[in-house]
Amino acid sequence: xxxxxxxxxxxxxxxxxxxxxxxxxxNIATYKKMFTFEIxxxxxxxxxxxxxxxxxxxxxxxxxxxxxxxxxxxxECILRADSMLDVAExxxxxxxxxxxxxxxxxxxxNQAARASILLAGQRKRGQMRLFLIxxxxxxxxxxxxxxxxxxxxxxxxxxxxxxxxxxxxxxxDGRKAALLSMDSTLRSNLSVxxxxxxxxxxTGEYAIHSQQRIFAGDETFSAMSEAWSQVLRDGFVGLP
Length: 240
Fold this sequence. Notes:
Blueprint: E1 3-9, E2 12-17, E3 20-22, E4 28-30, E5 34-39, E6 43-51, H1 53-68, H2 84-107, E7 115-123, E8 129-133, E9 139-141, E10 148-152, H3 158-164, H4 171-188, E11 196-202, E12 210-214, H5 219-238
Antiparallel strand pairs: 1-2, 1-10, 2-11, 3-4, 5-6, 6-7, 7-8, 8-9, 11-12
Helix pairs in contact: 1-2, 3-4
């Protein structure tokens, strides 16, 4: 399984994913689930994937093939699309086509192959947007009322996001909230695991602002996790 979370803030987007993939407790591997694309100063896009690797890797391969094809037009290539809505439609259409193709083969063996994608980014003269794209190709968008989206094992990391994240939340606080959301999931679900991939895009920069891989044993992440646990313990003891 996996856990990916994206925050849509006034100041930009914070995107965080784990890297664990498993097909049973004796078959655990590490696979990258975050992918970035950019034309610095013109557009920046982040994709995070959850679900069947056969589906997600095929989708990424097809998207990259269109990027490499100089004849691919704005309705085919995510780096030439006219808007982030068009990017979401390209990704959704590709995900649906691959899901139908691979799912049909898997059903003959009584197996399923499903995947979902978080997509965020901004094109010059456009707004920062965050989408959750379903296997059928349809999607929903983050709003001011719910400025975050999740895929995978989302239930453990959702409470802190509901309590903390608002559109006006700073990128640094958003980063902290995303990491604590992941920390809660890591503690409660063995199918989610390190290392973590973190990406931030600032509003109006049209470029990837920062990318980071956080490995198991990272001192800063471990200190934050322990500090959060202590805060919760102290708060619990102090409740009337």
